Amino acid sequence: MTRGERPQSRRAALLEFAILGVLHDGALHGYELRKRLTTALGIFRALSYGSLYPALRGLVDAGHITETPDPSTVGKRPRITYQLTPEGKERFQDLVAASGPDAWDDDDFDVRLAFFSRTEREVRLRILEGRRSRLEERLARIREVSARNRERMDAYTLVLQQHGEERAEREVRWLEELISAERRAALDPGPAAYDLDLPLASPQPHRQTQPQQTPPHNKE
User: Fold this and answer.
1) Residues 6 or more apart from 127 whose CB is under 8 A from it?
2) Helix orientation angle between 106-114 and 121-149, rounded to the nearest 10 degrees
3) Which of 66, 96, 67 is CA-nearest to residue 219?
4) Where are the beta strands (DSSP E) in 14-112?
5) Quick count: other Cβ atoms within 10 Å of Cβ 35?
6) Among 102, 126, 127, 93, which residue's Cα sits nearest to residue 113?
7) 3-class secondary structure for 112-173?
8) What is the pLDDT of residues 43-85, one digit of tens each?
9) Which of 46, 139, 160, 186 is the most buried (most CB within 10 A)?
């Protein structure tokens, strides 16, 4: 990927964003970087080096990161340390400021949420509200299909349909809690503004997450 070239796919764009976001905390070796990506972000749990290193090479070619051989590995296969450049930090800020419909999709939203502490409050709120609208549309479709086809469903299909409806309802409630917390924080900043009745763990069906006990604090 040359400087200024757009990623080939949405997943490639998400991987670029995630790499820049993780490296924003400091330089990492490739192994450490992959570990951070696979443990923190569900979409990248099966991330292979065959996908990671081409993405890193593209970011190096674009001038967004640098790679430096570790001098302690003399005589062995060198470990490469990756670090953001000023251009990379600027690129990450551009990406984290985006709040369009792509950020409301399942995988995109998960990655964006992981970096909410580096996201402006107004952008966070737009993304949360957009995600809520997306889930409300999904919930309405589920209910419509269920009402139309209920008599033709067998018991297992009916249970699955009900499970999908309950899942969507839980996430809508969770998003409403987050939105309320963001609005409270705008009026009275501080950790107490994020005291929620629901655990800050995404109830999305496509991945499992561990409950997060404390909300992302704004670093504005």
Assistant:
1) 99, 103, 104, 109, 112, 119
2) 150
3) 96
4) 28-29, 65-69, 80-84
5) 14
6) 127
7) HHHCHHHCCHHHHHHHHHHHHHHHHHHHHHHHHHHHHHHHHCCHHHHHHHHHHHHHHHHHHH
8) 777 788 888 889 999 999 999 999 998 776 666 677 889 999 9
9) 139
